[in-house]
Structures are given as C-alpha cells and as structure tokens.
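Dear colleagues,

As part of the handover before I leave the project, I'm documenting each prediction I ran so the next person doesn't have to rerun anything. This entry is a single chain, and its sequence is reproduced below.
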Amino acid sequence: IDADGLVISNYLREVRVPWRDILQVSGSRWVSTRQVTVVFDRNTGFGTSIIFMPKMRILWPGQEHPIAQELRDLVLVRRERLI
C-alpha cells in the first residue's frame, strides 16, 4: 500500500494500481483460508483480481480479516479526494 494505491509484486515484477481502479475488496470468512480478494476494473498485468493471504491473526470463526475492511476504507477515502 502506498499513497497512490496498491503495489502488487510477485518478486519478479511490480505494478502499481491506483485506488480508482479498485472495484471491490472482500475477505474470506473460512477459518482455514483467511484470503483477501481485490477486484480491479482493468487488467493490471496480474489479471483483473488478486488473492492474497494477509499476516496471520487470531479471529473469531466467520470473521473477516481486518485488512479487508481497512482496504475498503482506504479506497473510499482516496476516491473522495479525487472527486
């Protein structure tokens, strides 16, 4: 995460995706797979969505990882600044 959007890397290459290109952020509520999915409005070079596993955190069953809500909040705040 940087001021302009997300930085996505697979260690070989890196792309920057502006906040305005993020359509949706969702977090898995399954206990065994705490994945976060980010969907974009265009192909970023890594596809139109990414799935990542955030740092391990103890969560209640059925609770989404807090980074998903943090990303949603950042998208909203950053988009409002562009308007």
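The first helix runs from residue 66 to 82. The helical segments are 66-82.

All the best with the project,
I.
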